[in-house]
Write a structure and sequence with these properties.
The complex is a heterodimer of chains A (about 625) and B (about 450).
Chain A (H helix, E strand, L loop, with lengths): L18 E8 L5 H11 L17 H6 L7 E8 L2 E8 L8 H9 L3 E7 L6 H12 L3 E7 L8 H12 L7 E2 L8 H11 L12 E10 L3 E10 L1 E3 L4 E3 L4 E3 L3 E5 L3 E3 L2 E3 L3 E5 L13 E4 L18 E7 L5 H13 L5 E7 L3 E8 L2 H13 L5 E3 L6 E5 L4 E4 L10 E16 L3 H10 L3 E7 L4 E9 H4 L3 H8 L5 E11 L2 E8 L2 E2 L5 E4 H18 L7 E7 L2 E8 L14 H17 L1 E4 L2 E4 H8 L7 H15 L1
Parallel strand pairs in A: 1-3, 1-4, 4-5, 5-6
Antiparallel strand pairs in A: 2-3, 7-8, 7-16, 8-15, 9-14, 10-11, 10-16, 12-13, 12-15, 17-19, 17-20, 18-19, 21-22, 21-23, 23-25, 23-26, 24-25, 27-28, 27-29, 27-30, 30-31, 32-33
Helix pairs in contact in A: 12-14, 12-15
Chain B lengths: L18 H10 L2 H13 L3 H5 L8 E7 L28 H18 L7 E8 L7 H14 L2 E11 L6 H9 L4 E7 L3 H6 L6 H13 L3 E8 L6 H13 L4 E6 L7 H7 L8 H17 L3 E4 L2 E3 L6 H7 L3 E5 L4 E4 L2 E5 L3 H9 L5 E6 L2 H12 L6 E2 H8 L5 H12 L3 E5 L5 E5 L1 H5 L1 H12 L4
Parallel strand pairs in B: 1-2, 1-9, 2-3, 3-4, 4-5, 5-6
Antiparallel strand pairs in B: 6-8, 7-8, 10-11, 11-12, 13-15, 14-15
Classes of the chains: A alpha+beta (about 625), B alpha/beta (about 450).
């Protein structure tokens, strides 16, 4: 039975010496959310009755996918030796696409709990986040989770971590988020090992905006970490970067629901609501101070995130374009990494070219637009950005394949990624083959333990952002993990492949690919579309072309029979309902020229995980031979 | 019987309101309460059914569904059962009593709701296998129809028949009882194809049946199925020729439709049988249309061909959207804007009748938009076509220009032809290609009407 403790440390007047701010760094599935849940429960801020698993993962998508996307900040009390401390727990996302969000969380903490699944050992993503935390001078508390599982290898994993951190393996804590074992000890360790914040409580107020979100009723909610000074609920605040000032409607902490307070002091984590609804009026990384006694120097902000993947998003119903813009504005508020500019597609009408951190980021954004905002969307195949130098020396950055210049091109540069892959040593060969197939260049290889290796590669971003991760997983029975960072650019032999349906070039299907892979792309795309587009009254050729040269062709033969054989007394109602269903289905079709293309064709064009059958392989070879001749 | 998927009495396989589901629900609630509710429902006024009645009296037909078969064929998903007795009086032996009981209740329901009783212009027995019942049962049902509603002199009275279940004597008895027409489930003349379809008869039985019918003055029709797994075009051609060799004046040809839940559906999924192929079926349709046409049998509905004057009047009624009473488990009824359907399972159906309640599982009132859709989808199935007047009456306003343009486009694409009806009225009907692509033609024309649902 959990007893509700009356928290003695009041927000706004808690001395910094009693505050510990920490985040949890963990690989996806290593049980971060479960441990966080357990902390909430043990500290008494959530009753056992109210406990729903993954309390912090508030978005439906997060709970369904079992991953954390958005950082959350919760204030929990914890008593050590009779003294109540205030812990600020900042959740971090665990997927490779969200490194940017992790760096935001790190900047708001003094300590990081490095949580590692005792059945798995450390993974590439954890490794990279760990290095980020070390770079930020955070105190690391290494913890093994899932020690209750029979397959746990705590001793082995502890050695691995100790080896990495240069600490003693006895310093590695052992917990079970599931049973709660060891979690109290972890909280004690946080109090003892993580340094208290060291801001100046008497200086002018400075608070770092590390997140914000849009609440339909209350407007923008800004999450802040107080560094220096104090902000009071009735004081006008100033956003130093934007230069705008507002009266806060509410100041508060999350514990675990929003609790208004009269002030927030140095070292504390909380939120501020100003009633502002315009999305542009909040900027993550900005510094908030008070109007009356403003700080002179802003806190170091964040590096603006660089999108790695671009895709066009188009509403099925073209009249929804303005609504889509509003929705993107709202998402942008707590997803600073999302960028978008309007674009027009001949095939799909008005939409936006959006930049994402990676494919998962793209999928989650799409899902949120569909679920939270109810849009019916078509997304084009994702691509990276290219720097194109034309014959006349002019330069162009291409984020949309249909804008790829048609004329003579002097050079094309593609973005590169610095890639870390951690894999059991048995799969080194498979991983190397995979990297080679994706035009990777090996840098070095390090054994992190006797069994596991960190492979370091340089690979074009365009090669890894789509299905590389899935392939890596399937090549290594799921054991390998991946992390990557953008790492400059390199010249590349790229061509644009166009897809023509019924003789019309469909800009939404154009792709910029490496010359060696252009035939594969053309053949696979035409084959895919041939399967996805239903037969219609007339024959439909589907072609892939580089410039004016056709490199692949499939044909959808004309539909000859589409009729219900019997329509007697009892069939009439059924037939009428079929007709209505057919009509509804038509609404989900896009008319390209006079060809009806189902939405699924666009969605499937996005998926690249298809296995290649013999016919496809043969056709790719034949196309390549023809081109060579 | 002809296990052809006709008239009403089919299990829904496509997720629409299912009579089966209704009966399942009924078996959960207490039967007594259910019938009580139903009885009250019968008392309520079907004003819409009355309201929609036309000034010129609409023909009235009677359809009787006989839900029994000797065995179930692999492709069949119709409402039929092989058990002799399913309890609660639902047995083959008691079927005629129950059918007559239902007709009495229907007749009373009509009176109570002010629906004028008119003599039946046609009667049709479908199944299942109507001829699994002794002929005198079928005759007794016809006599009851005559007693309750009257039968128009010279009316077409048809029964479907399985070639295995008719004899010279049984046909003689049907003829004496007023039957004028038999529809034989021939399906194919090729033994191998018949086996795939689980049919036990031989072509000789069909010939004997048709001959017996002819001897007693009955017209015959045969049903054929094309597209059975493994059937070649040559085999299909042979079947069509064999049907013509019988000298019948009416032939129905149906593309095999495989419902997933049937034995054949399962075998196709398992890869034991090949799935029907649309292109192959289109070829076979064209073969049948050519051969039947050469022999003087002209198409008058997508799946029906007849020597002029020998069209099934009963079935034409469905496409002309006349009124009909449906009798028997799962049978559908239609009165102006009301469509209703019987409980599908014979036992539940029998229990309702025992309780003195009209055994309807569900009903719907067709609204103006739906009525317009029905007008198009029915009118475009038949050679007599869809007249502009009828369509304008259905949509309640002059044809929108978009509909005229769509009709012109459909004509230019060779999907419909425009012609003048017997009274000089402007009509459209599907061409051969338009018959094969009928769903597209209907959808496009309905779409161009911009009906507000």
């Amino acid at each position: 039975m959990v007893v509700f403790l009356e928290q003695k440390n009041v927000p706004g007047s808690t001395p910094q010496s009693l505050i510990r701010n920490f985040c949890i760094i963990a690989h996806i599935d290593h049980g971060k959310s479960t441990v966080a849940d357990r902390i909430l429960q043990l500290s008494g801020v959530v009753s056992a009755h109210d406990m729903r698993s993954q309390y912090l993962d508030r978005m439906d998508i997060e709970r369904e996918r079992g991953i954390t996307i958005k950082s959350q900040a919760v204030r929990v009390p914890w008593t050590v030796d009779g003294q109540e401390y205030t812990l600020g727990m900042i959740d971090t996302p665990g997927h490779v696409d969200f490194t940017y969000e992790v760096s935001r969380s790190l900047a708001a903490c003094e300590g990081a709990v490095l949580l590692v699944d005792a059945t798995q050992g450390i993974e590439a993503q954890t490794l990279s986040n760990l290095y980020m935390a070390i770079d930020d001078d955070l105190t690391i508390i290494p913890v093994l989770n899932k020690i209750d599982l029979p397959s746990a290898m705590p001793d082995k994993c502890a050695d691995e971590i100790a080896n990495l951190l240069g600490c003693d393996s006895s310093e590695v804590l052992r917990v079970s988020g599931k049973t709660g074992d060891g979690v109290a000890g972890l909280l004690d360790a946080i109090v003892r090992r993580v340094p208290a914040p060291a801001g100046d409580p008497d200086a002018p107020a400075r608070a770092l905006v590390f997140d914000s979100e849009y609440d339909p009723y209350r407007g923008i909610v800004t999450y802040i970490r107080m560094v220096d000074g104090e902000i009071r609920s009735r004081e006008k605040v100033l956003q130093m970067g934007l230069g705008s000032s507002h009266d806060p409607i509410e100041l508060g902490v999350i514990s675990p629901a929003m609790k208004p307070t009269t002030s927030l002091g140095a070292g504390e984590v909380g939120y501020i609501i100003t009633g502002v609804k315009e999305v542009s009026q909040s900027k993550v990384g900005d510094t908030i101070t008070t109007q009356k006694n403003p700080a002179t120097q802003a806190l170091p902000g964040y590096r603006e995130p660089q999108p790695m993947v671009y895709a066009g998003l188009f509403p099925m119903d073209t009249t929804e374009f303005p609504a889509l813009r509003e929705a993107l504005d709202k998402l942008k508020l707590n997803d600073a990494s999302l960028v978008y500019t309007p674009e027009t597609s001949v095939a799909l009408g008005f939409g936006f070219r959006c930049g994402f951190l990676g494919l998962l980021h793209m999928q989650i954004t799409l899902e949120r637009l569909q679920r939270e905002f109810g849009f019916d969307l078509i997304s084009t195949a994702p691509n990276v950005h290219y720097r194109v130098v034309c014959e006349d020396g002019s330069e162009k950055t291409v984020t949309n394949p249909s804008e790829y210049p048609d004329g003579k091109i002097r050079a094309v540069y593609e973005p590169m990624a610095d890639v870390d892959i951690v894999t059991p040593k048995d799969y080194i060969g498979d991983v190397m083959t995979l990297c080679q197939e994706h035009r990777g260049e090996m840098k070095n290889m390090e054994y992190i333990s006797a069994e596991r290796v960190d492979l370091h590669y340089r690979i074009p971003v365009g090669e890894i952002v789509f299905d590389f991760f899935d392939q890596l997983k399937s090549h290594t029975k799921g054991y390998a993990t991946l992390d990557y960072h953008e790492d400059g650019e390199q010249p590349a032999d790229l061509v644009k492949v166009d897809i023509l349906i019924h003789g019309e070039r469909i800009d939404a299907f154009s792709a910029v690919v490496h010359r060696d892979k252009s035939y594969a792309y053309g053949v696979m795309m035409t084959k895919k579309l041939q399967k996805l587009i239903p037969r219609q009254q007339f024959e439909i050729p589907i072609q892939a072309a580089i410039g004016t040269r056709i490199i692949a062709r499939e044909t959808i033969s004309a539909l000859r029979k589409d009729v219900l054989a019997k329509c007697y007394g009892g069939d009439i109602t059924r037939k009428r309902k079929l007709l209505e269903k057919q009509k509804a289905g038509k609404k989900r079709m896009k008319l390209l020229g006079n060809v009806q293309v189902p939405q699924e064709a666009f969605i499937a064009a996005l998926s690249t995980a298809d296995t290649i059958d013999k016919d496809t392989r043969d056709k790719i070879r034949a196309a390549a031979r023809k081109a060579a001749a | 019987m002809t296990c052809t998927p006709k008239r009403g009495a089919r299990k829904d396989s496509d997720g629409f309101r299912s009579t089966g589901a209704d009966t399942a629900a009924a078996s959960v609630s207490s039967a007594g309460t259910r019938w009580e509710t139903r009885r009250r429902q019968d008392e309520r006024g079907w004003s819409a059914a009355r309201h929609g009645q036309r000034r010129t009296p609409t023909p009235f037909e009677v359809y009787v569904h006989v839900p029994f078969c000797l065995r179930r064929c692999g492709y069949c998903d119709f409402n039929t059962y092989t058990a002799v007795d399913m309890g609660s009086g639902a047995s083959r032996g008691n079927y005629a009593n129950l059918a007559v009981r239902e007709m009495e209740l229907l007749r009373r329901w009509q009176d109570r709701n002010g629906i004028e009783a008119r003599p039946a212009s046609t009667v049709f027995f479908g199944g299942g296998t109507p001829t699994i019942l002794p002929s005198h049962d079928l005759v007794r049902i016809v006599a009851a129809i005559d007693a309750l509603w009257g039968i128009v002199p010279g009316a077409e009275i048809t029964t479907e028949a399985n070639p295995d279940t008719v004899t010279d004597d049984s046909i003689a008895e049907l003829a004496a009882g007023g039957f004028t027409r038999v529809s034989f489930g021939m399906q194919s003349a090729v033994p191998r194809v018949l086996r795939v379809l689980d049919r036990t008869h031989e072509q000789a039985n069909v010939a004997a049946g048709v001959e017996a019918a002819r001897r007693y003055g009955l017209r015959s029709s045969v049903d054929l199925i094309y597209g059975a797994p493994g059937e070649t075009k040559e085999e299909w051609t042979r079947s069509v020729r064999a049907a013509l060799d019988l000298g019948v004046g009416h032939v129905s040809c149906y593309a095999l439709t495989v419902a997933p839940a049937t034995k054949m559906g399962r075998r196709i999924r398992a890869g034991i049988l090949s799935a029907p192929d649309d292109d192959d079926e289109a070829d076979k349709y064209e073969i049948a249309n050519a051969l039947l046409g050469e022999a003087g049998l002209q198409w008058y509905e997508i799946s029906n061909w007849a020597r002029p004057g020998q069209e099934s009047q009963h079935n034409l009624g469905y496409w002309r959207n006349v009124d009909w009473a449906g009798v028997g488990p799962g049978a559908h009824s239609h009165y102006a804007r009301l469509r209703a359907w019987d409980i599908a399972h014979p036992r539940e159906w029998a229990q309702a009748l025992e309780a003195g309640v009209l055994p309807w599982a569900g009903d719907e009132l067709v609204d103006d938009a739906e009525n317009a859709e029905e007008t198009v989808l029915l009118g475009l199935r038949v050679r007599e076509g869809l007249s502009r007047e009828r369509l304008e009456a259905a949509i309640g306003r002059p044809l929108p220009p978009a509909a005229l343009r769509e009709a012109e486009r459909l004509e230019a694409e060779g999907l419909v032809e425009r012609f003048r009806g017997p009274e000089g009225e402007a009509c459209v009907r599907p061409t051969l290609r338009g018959r094969l692509l009928n769903d597209i033609v209907v959808e496009r024309l309905v779409g161009s009407l911009a009906i507000q649902g």
